[in-house]
Each structure stands twice: as structure tokens, then as C-alpha cells.
Design a protein that fits this description.
It is built from four helices and four strands; from the N terminus they run βαβββααα. With 112 residues, it is of the alpha+beta class. It binds iron/sulfur cluster (2 copies).
Length: 112
Amino acid sequence: MTYVVVENCIKCKYMDCVEVCPVDCFYEGENMLVIHPDECIDCGVCEPECPAEAIKPDSEPGLDKWLKLNADMAKGWPNITVKRDPPPDAKEFDGKPGKFDAFFSENPGEGD
Ligand code: SF4
Ligand code: SF4
């Protein structure tokens, strides 16, 4: 089992999650984060820290697409362990439907 980052992180990217992860397994894309499924120890502490409710255990049904995306992107995106300021328009995008099709980017983020 692992935890996965799902669609509502896209363009929200609050980054509260990275501060609490004991094994530093978050990786940063241009406009979302992912969790490396082989590094996550399933502790669950990040889930309630996410203001966008964008972190779920992969035991929830229907998350196959997101598990694959987390695994694939974590291979190429840089590690992130320190919270930075969220995007200025993060609130506007919180809860918006269709963010994957409209905004998902495979480009890496800055990392730290
Ligand atoms: S706290 Fe939630 S919205 Fe923010 S970067 Fe982490 S998973 Fe994404
Ligand atoms: S469940 Fe624990 S180990 Fe996995 S990403 Fe969240 S904080 Fe890190």
C-alpha cells in the first residue's frame, strides 16, 4: 500500500504535506506533487495535512490512474522536502473539476 496525490493538488500545490513526511518521498512537478510509492511507508500523517484533500490511500477504489501517475512522475521529478509559498491563485483552483485535462504538466518543478 501507499498514499497517492490526486487531481485536486494540480495548481493548488500548498506543500504542507512535504513538511510532515518522515521519509521525504514527495516529488515536485511544475504544478503538482506526487508520492514515490516505493518510498512511502504508509504512515498516513500527510493525508490530514493537505488543505486540498488531495492525498488518498491507494486502498480507496478508483485510484489506479493516480497510482500510476505518482509512480511514473516520481522517477523523473526532483525531491521536495521544504514547503514554499503556494501559487498565488491556488484557492481559485481548489475543487475545480477537470484540472488534469486542462492543466496537468509533465514538466519537473524546482525541488530543493
Ligand atoms: S498539501 Fe496537498 S495540495 Fe498541497 S502539495 Fe501537498 S498534496 Fe498537493
Ligand atoms: S503516508 Fe507518510 S510516508 Fe507516505 S507520503 Fe504520506 S507522510 Fe510520507
